[in-house]
Amino acid sequence: MTHCLADIDLLEVSKEGLASFERRIAAIPPDLCAPFHEEARQLETELLTAYRFVVLAAKKEDELDKVARWWAVMVQVCDEYAKRLNQLTRSHPTCGAELYYDHVLDLRSKCLRLQKMHC
């Protein structure tokens, strides 16, 4: 089955979203939490959108190895998002970035389970 968007495209889109996030977050002073939370929520929304895309792609896929590949790509995407949010927990220690970081790790665990289930 062919898809309009390939797994490599998903990685590229997520990298662009992360780069944009990093540019916006760099302009926020470490002691201002409200704009930080707005950006972190937006990042989380982008990640969940990628997850929904993978769910749809996996449902339409007939071959288990390709389904596993979609979930593997989603694990990679989660890793990149987690890396950025982990950095933010250090640069914005009073803003509660751990909440968003935990959400990403939870989603990563779910995607990893799905990947292993389809191998």
Number of helices: 4
Level of helix content?
A: over 70%
How large is the share of residues in beta strands? under 5%
Rg over CA atoms: 15 Å
Number of structurally distinct domains: 1
Low-confidence stretches: none
Which geometry do the CA atoms define?
elongated
Our measurement of the CA-to-CA distance between the termini, rounded to an integer number of angstroms, reads 18 Å
Oligomer: single chain
Average residue-wise pLDDT: 88
Q: Which structural class do the helices and strands define?
A: mainly alpha
The count of DSSP E runs of length 2 or more, i.e. the number of strands, is: 0
Name the helix and strand elements from N-terminus to C-terminus, one letter apiece. Answer: HHHH
**Sheet with most strands:** none
Account of the protein in words:
Helix content is 80%, strand content 0%. By secondary structure, the chain is an all-alpha fold. The chain has one domain (7-117).
Entry keywords:
single chain; 119 residues; mainly alpha
Q: Could you provide a short overview of the structure?
A:
It is built from four helices and no strands. The chain has helices at 7-26, 34-60, 64-91, 98-117.
Walk me through the topology.
Blueprint: H1 7-26, H2 34-60, H3 64-91, H4 98-117
